Amino acid sequence: MSRELSEQEVVRRNSLNQLRELGIDPYPAARFPVSATAQAIKENFEGHEDDYKQVSLAGRLMSRRIMGKASFAELMDHSGRIQLYFNRDEICPDEDKTNYNTVFKKLTDIGDFIGVEGYVFKTKVGEISVFVQKFQILSKSLRPLPVVKTDEDGKVHDGVTDPEFRYRQRYVDLAINPDVRKVFAQRTRIINSMRDFFNAEGYLEVDTPVLQPIPGGAAARPFVTHHNTLDVPFYLRIANELYLKRLIVGGFDGVYEFSRNFRNEGMDRTHNPEFTVMEIYVAYQDYDWMMNFTEAMLEKVVMDLHGTTEIPLGDKTISFQRPFKRVTMYDAILEHTGIDISEMDEAQLRQTCKDLNIEVDESMGKGKLVDEIFGEKCEANYVQPTFITDYPIEMSPLCKKHRSKPGLVERFELMINGKELANAYSELNDPIDQRERFEEQVELMERGDDEAMYIDQDFLRALEYGMPPTSGMGIGVDRLVMILTNQSSIQDVLFFPQMRPEK
RNA sequence: CUCUACAUAGCUCAGUGGUAGAGCACCCGGCUCUUAACCGGGAGGACACAGGUUCGAGUCCUGUUGUGGAGACCA
Questions:
Q1: CA–C1' distance A9–B71 (Å)?
Q2: CA-closest candidate to residue A370, choices A390, A398, A386, A384
Q3: Residue A200 is part of a domain; what is its CATH number?
Q4: Residues A106 and A188 in one domain
Q5: Contacts by residues A14-21 (CB-CB < 8 Å, ≥ 24 positions apart)
């Protein structure tokens, strides 16, 4: 466990000891009252100078420019940075200049948390700053914080860019890269905006189990754990769909949950083993209603965040202006391959895949084959928000049969930037039909499809008591945040993305 | 899992087989309106790990570990 300390760490530990010898506690217990923030001062000082004769603020020391008997420094609090001015004879009015010469100049380091009291003024070159009259170390930093400098053109120098460093030591990333903090603040605003939208409709936010005896509601490999007292396996949820539907059976008209889901599969820039999906279920509605609801929700969230419906994403611009384009899955395939698959059986679909150079295997059923064609030939083309509707029944075991198109279900997926963002159904509420669909999944499983769903007998029991006609929708929160914050990796919208453990 | 790139000081990077380098940060000194502060001096390195080739390896080769990218997989 012992670790060789770097030169700079030794220096800081020595400073820590010297502070203690001077009777200064480097980790004081008492609260430090804060009366102002950096951003508020900079925004409001001019014209209200009298209100800033006495301020106290606290934060991390981010830079120092020492010029003998006077110094400038930068303090960063949650709102931003502000310049501090330290003058020896102001801080040390008496003969003893220790507080400035030793404590500030020698024993205080970049990265330390300090509290300052003083008044706000403008420097000769016009920067709003705090004239420090008293300062106090609130917490000593023992590791050198990487110093990031921004020049007058706003260009960042020596920023920490190593992704491994940034993700493993996210606290450092957040401390020194304000843009990173901004993305996560936006993430929370997006989620709050969604929540406000649902609450305004009177829908109920709920919590359902993460530990499930049967991993249902989606097709994915689960994480398995074990409950000692019950001596049974439990699965971390891959979805919460079946539980939310049980609540609709129970009489709630609208329920939603921000669900942390877990899938034991590969990781890449759009997949993390744990991720967040918002799922909502509304009784007496259908998937047409849900399309309108979804685009209204997204337009509102985007407006709340950006004040416009046109947002940049990489080198593209995405428009969230309603209404979104709507295309049936068969029309999408016809448009992008020139092939009409609407009347094909499984053998013809398999041949079509071969003709299109799409890899298939014997375990794939009709639904999976259609999905392969769509995924290979169509998906990437839908950059602007587009609802793909009316999927083949075989790939949607929880979705109601289409009211007028045999062999299809009332399902849509919302595609943005060539990726699936949301998925919704008119929910299957016929318990006999649902049991048959589950049984078809068992057949798929026996054919070798390791993603087919298990039968959840309790869920069927719930449907047998009766579930009202319901529409449900799930939206990938991490992917939505990626789009709305213009990030290309899921790791940049998760505070602590999954990494291989160190050492 | 496959292919590929990268791994050098606290951070960002250079180093093209021949004594380990720079900027920032750090230490010492100077400087009372600086702002990528400045000026002078200084210290700091098992070059990711383990082998190999070579008189000699940070550099070439093999393997390992970690990370990024591209794929496979993830409806």
A1: 43
A2: A390
A3: 3.30.930.10
A4: no
A5: A15/A106, A15/A107, A15/A108, A15/A109, A15/A140, A16/A140, A16/A142, A18/A102, A18/A106, A18/A107, A19/A103, A19/A107, A19/A137, A19/A140
Domain count, chain A: 2
**A197 and A138 assigned to the same domain:** no
Answer for A258: CB within 7 Å of strand B: no
Nucleotides of B under 7 A from a protein CB: 1, 9-13, 23-28, 30-38, 43-44, 65-75
Cα A205 from chain centroid?
19
Q: Which residue segment(s) compose the domain that A117 sits in?
A: 7-145
Q: What is the CATH number of the domain that holds A60?
A: 2.40.50.140
Band of the pLDDT at A180, cuts 50, 70, 90?
Answer: very high
Please name the helix (run of DSSP H) or strand (run of DSSP E) that holds residue A500, with its range, or none. none
The nt closest to A423 (CA vs C1′) is B75
Per-residue pLDDT band for A73 (boundaries 50, 70, 90) equals very high
ipTM: 0.92
Residue A166 corresponds to which tokens in the numbers above?
């940034």
Provide, in whole angstroms, the distance separating residue A273's CA from nucleotide B3's C1': 23
- A135-159 per-position pLDDT tens digit: 999 999 999 999 999 888 888 887 8
A492 CB contact with strand B at below 7 Å:
no
Same domain, A132 and A273: no
Q: Is the dihedral of CA A165, A169, A174, A179 positive or negative?
A: positive
Q: How far is CA A442 from the centre of its chain?
A: 34
Residue nearest to nucleotide B1 (CA to C1'): A266
In this structure, the answer to whether residues A319 and A400 fall within a common structural domain is: yes
Provide the CA A474 to C1' B69 distance, Å, integer: 30
C1' nearest to CA of A111: which nucleotide?
B25
Domain boundary among A119, A145, A171: A145
Give the C-alpha separation, A132 to A118, whole Å.
Answer: 5
Q: Which of A22-31, A217-226, A363-372 has the highest mean pLDDT?
A: A22-31
- What's the mean pLDDT when you consider all of chain A? 93
| Residue at which a domain ends, from A145, A168, A192 | A145
Helix axes A457-465 and A241-249, enclosed angle (nearest 10): 30
